[in-house]
Write a structure and sequence with these properties.
This protein is of the alpha/beta class and 435 residues long. It has 2 domains: 95 residues, no CATH class; 288 residues, Alkaline Phosphatase, subunit A. The chain is 30% helix and 12% strand. The strands form 5 sheets. A 7-stranded mixed sheet has the order 5-10-1-13-14-4-15, sandwiched between helices. A hairpin with a 2-residue loop joins strand 11 and strand 12. Helix 6 packs parallel to helix 9.
Length: 435
């Protein structure tokens, strides 16, 4: 017997049509009433957004209690009051590897992976959850993942750890922080400029290109199976072409086909409020047009140097301000949460059949420490949205006194809601059942 290195799962992903076929087989537009005798069309996809701000929050005002409409939120979270029934507040999770250095870099570089960090000038973390999802589903959209930021990366070293760890939450591989786009105009161009990627080609072309090399490594029996598979793909594409000539559309379609906002001006806005709001609008636009389904938005770095003259807080940088529980620190915290609330409100105003775009999204907001005193014994985490009906809001989950409270257990749960099931991620081998 010949042993081949290609599993069936690898083969299907390798030919690039794993996710495409289900959409193509639907003959009605999702959200429409199908004709008699025709099965309902496919549902809208689940989107993943991760928002981050550095240095934690006001130590006395990051809290939630109760459930549903009666849920009470601390002052930091007040901008989310309108979304209490769609908010899941999670307390007590932690990242064991992040506690080893107990400085900003060592607490941020593995926030979305739980991986050990290299020190001494070397760069090594772990592939982050957003990039794992993008690697699995990115071929379904023009932009596999959109990685946005509002503060430039810091290339220096702090206490033997690279500050690149403080500047990046998204990692494409253990040694590669995902390039961060901080210019709104370039982020807009990435979504809408006319560049053909693999996901833009016909499914059959992608299959034939990959299959040609694959055939040399599989048995004659598997080659026959591959031919049958290619024939089925060809049949689907011919049906799509014929339907297109009749003016029909295949499967789900986004609610917006072109940008509904003008291209931002070149450069970086000098007003941090305008900068963040533009990035929030671009995140929403990417989801609404289905140009991307995975986005991270880093509102600032950990160990951040941002100032906030728009709030009347220009006398101290964010990092230093975080070491207090002043009224100005609370004001800055609420400013960040206003960006989260703004995104949630815009997503919730977009109807996608029976659900809103927020109902079809998992919006995670987090920081790498609970407060500015580097407390990473429990990390601040909020999930907003419904993940296509798979995530229930209006709840508070407390893991503080539980033995297995790895943050990576949450990531396993989140990936599971996007049909990406891994036996292990970071330091976790089972998801959080309650999520």
């Amino acid at each position: 017997m010949t042993t081949h290195k290609f599993s069936r799962r690898t083969f299907l992903r390798g030919v690039g049509v794993t996710m495409a076929l289900p959409w193509m087989e639907s003959l009605t537009v999702w959200g429409d009433t199908p004709p008699a005798g025709v099965k309902p069309a496919s549902e809208a996809p689940v989107r993943l957004a991760v928002l981050f701000s550095g240095n934690g929050f006001h130590s006395k005002e990051w809290w939630a209690k109760g459930e549903g409409k009666q849920m009470e939120l601390g002052k930091v979270l007040a901008p989310l009051n309108d979304f209490r029934e769609k908010t899941l507040f999670i307390r007590g999770l932690y990242n064991e590897e992040a506690q080893k250095g107990n400085i900003h870099s060592s607490q941020t570089g593995n926030l979305l992976s739980g991986a050990p960090l290299a020190s001494g000038g070397e760069i090594r973390s772990g592939t982050s959850i957003d990039q794992l999802v993008a690697q699995r589903y990115g071929n379904s959209t023009k932009v596999p993942s959109l990685v946005l930021g509002c503060e430039k990366s810091n290339p220096s070293v702090h206490k033997n750890y690279s500050m690149l760890y403080s500047s990046h939450i998204s990692w494409s591989s253990p040694t590669t922080p995902t390039p961060l786009e901080i210019y709104p105009a370039l982020a807009f161009d990435r979504l809408f400029k006319d560049v053909v990627s693999k996901g833009d080609k016909s499914v059959l072309d992608a299959v034939l290109s990959d299959a040609k090399d694959l055939r040399r490594h599989i048995s004659a029996n598997d080659q026959r199976k591959l031919d049958e598979y290619l024939d089925s793909v060809r049949d689907v594409e011919q049906r799509i072409e014929n339907a297109g000539q009749k003016g029909e559309l295949q499967g789900w379609r986004p609610t917006l086909s072109a940008p509904n906002i003008p291209r931002p001006a070149d450069g970086i806005p000098q007003d941090i409020g305008e900068h963040m709001r533009l990035m929030c609008d671009i995140l929403v636009l990417g989801f609404q047009t289905d140009t991307t389904r995975v986005t991270t938005l880093k509102l600032n770095n950990d160990h951040s140097s941002l100032r906030f003259p728009n709030l009347g807080v220009d006398y101290m940088i964010h990092h230093l301000l975080s070491h207090s529980d002043s009224a100005d620190w609370l004001k800055v915290n609420q400013f960040f949460l206003e960006q989260v609330g703004y995104i949630a409100r815009k997503l919730d105003a977009i109807q996608e059949g029976p659900r809103t775009l927020l109902d079809n999204t998992m919006l995670m907001y987090c920081s790498s420490m609970l407060n500015g005193n580097h407390d990473a014994s429990q990390l601040p985490v909020v999930l907003i949205g419904g993940a296509g009906g798979r995530l229930k809001g209006g709840r508070v989950l407390d893991y503080k006194e539980k033995p297995e409270r790895q943050l990576c257990r949450l990531y396993l749960s989140m990936m599971d809601k996007m049909n990406l099931r891994l036996p292990k991620f970071g330091d976790a081998s089972k998801p959080l059942e309650e999520v």
